[in-house]
Amino acid sequence: MFSLHSKDFLEANIADFIIPSEKVAHVQKANTLEHALLVLTKSGYSSIPVLDAQFHLEGLISSSLITDSILGLEHIEFEKLDEKKVEEVMDVDFPTILLRTKFIKALQLLIDHPFLCVVDEDGLFEGIMTRRVILKQLNRNIHNA
């Protein structure tokens, strides 16, 4: 494919390296925290994308955000899981990338994030690029160099 030192490799678009949206666990912003916690638990992920009804990326939700939102002063307020909506506690401050983003840019962002959400120019969710995929590609290129 590409050599590790090849500019082609580092400048390649990430389109071939993403997990498509159809295969990514997600929730909608109007879902309850209970639903989000179930999806997170069943999927085994610590964080998943939050979409609106038209599949625009709106945020990320994690088990820790959900837990923090139901912690009371003296006990965990489990009843809030069915009362609160995902949009009330989701993270909206996270990097995104476009399909045309270069591999090197995704690599730099994945240093601090386990995955990156990929969107189109209109903010529609296209999928995710994981740190694992980047590391596998780098490993492959190192051993083929």
From TrEMBL:
Residues 18-78 form the CBS domain. Gene3D superfamilies: CBS-domain (3.10.580.10). The keyword Isomerase does not apply. InterPro entries: CBS_CbpB, CBS_dom, CBS_dom_sf, Diverse_CBS-Domain. Keywords: CBS domain. The keyword Endoplasmic reticulum does not apply. PANTHER family: CBS DOMAIN-CONTAINING PROTEIN CBSX3, MITOCHONDRIAL, CYCLIC DI-AMP RECEPTOR B. NCBIfam families: CBS_CbpB. This is CBS domain-containing protein. It comes from Rossellomorea vietnamensis.
